[in-house]
Design a protein that fits this description.
Elements (H helix, E strand, L loop, with lengths): L5 H11 L12 E9 L2 E6 L2 E6 L3 E2 L5 H11 L5 E5 L8 E4 L2 E2 H8 L3 E2 L8 H14 L3 H8 L12 H9 L2 E8 L3 E9 L4 E10 L14 E17 L3 E10 L4 E9 L2 E4 L2 E7 L5
Length: 280
């Protein structure tokens, strides 16, 4: 009888002794509902719909639209993906088939790295970003061209008008998540001076057997009113603006926008910015 390969002998011995080979836990599988922005995707896991940030990535405002288009190409609706954790971090590594989506976005220059050194996949992600930088792909050319020309600071008194032009027609998206739910806020500042804010909360609760649609466990609210810039400041490398919101019920509030080369914040929270498709 010919000698049996060692690999088979070891496996046979393990079975005979009642010992099973160590199994690697399968990564959770989910289906794509939609791409929210350049580094956030909404997925369906069983009964739950939630938004997931791609770990190790950030998208500067100068490349937000292109980044979202790149992610939509990688992750069309209903695509099956695997979500992989990295310790207790909130973001996830996404894999679609053999494609490591996080690395693919960095390699194409659709996104840039964020806090890579601390991640388990630091080597792969850093290598992908380095490749994009060297080849000047995506944002490494587009954003460099968009920033350098030192903009002349608006004349005193003209900064508010400049800020209004910069904000008008844009949508600012913020995602927040907890263990059992996630919330999306889309604040649209329309050119006619009106605003529309759509807020959707997706919960783990609810009975999808009565309504199996992906958004069956979601609540949606819309707020509308008027907006105006009350103050603005431009420097060589940043811009900020305070906006007054006048709601339909007559109440008022203020929203603070800050834009730098690293991105945009609204009231201190990071957001993605793009052109609004809601304003008419």
């Amino acid at each position: 009888m010919p000698a049996r390969p060692l690999k088979i002998l070891l496996l046979s011995s393990a079975v005979a002794l009642g010992v099973s080979a160590p199994a690697h836990a399968a990564a959770p599988s989910a289906s794509v509902v939609k791409v929210v922005d350049g580094n956030t995707v909404k997925v369906r896991e069983g009964k739950r719909t939630r938004s997931v940030d791609l770990l190790g990535l950030e998208v500067p405002a100068c490349h937000a639209v292109q980044a979202q288009a790149a992610l939509e190409k990688l992750l069309p609706a209903k695509a099956r993906v695997r979500l992989i954790k990295d310790g207790t971090r909130k973001g996830r590594y996404l894999h679609r088939g053999s494609t490591f989506v996080n690395a693919a976005l960095l390699r194409s220059g659709a996104a840039q790295g964020k806090d890579l050194a601390a991640l388990k996949q630091a080597r792969k992600l850093t290598s992908a970003e380095t490749e994009a930088k060297a080849a000047k792909r995506g944002l490494w050319t587009a954003c460099a061209q968009a920033q350098p020309q030192p903009q002349q600071a608006p004349r005193p008194g003209g900064q508010n008008e400049q800020a209004r032009k910069d904000l008008a027609g844009r949508v600012f998206t913020r995602i927040t998540a907890t263990t059992f739910s996630s919330t999306e806020s889309h604040l649209n500042l329309c050119s006619d001076g009106s605003f529309i804010e759509d807020v959707s909360t997706y919960s783990d609760f609810g009975d999808p057997s009565t309504n199996p649609l992906p958004d069956s466990d979601a609540t949606h609210q819309r707020y509308q009113g008027r907006w105006e810039v009350v103050s603005a400041t431009y420097t060589a490398d940043s811009a900020s603006a305070r906006v007054r919101r006048i709601n339909q019920d007559g109440s008022e509030g203020f929203v603070d926008f800050v834009a730098t080369g690293r991105g945009v914040t609204v009231n201190g929270f990071s957001v993605s910015a793009g052109m609004s498709s809601t304003c008419t």
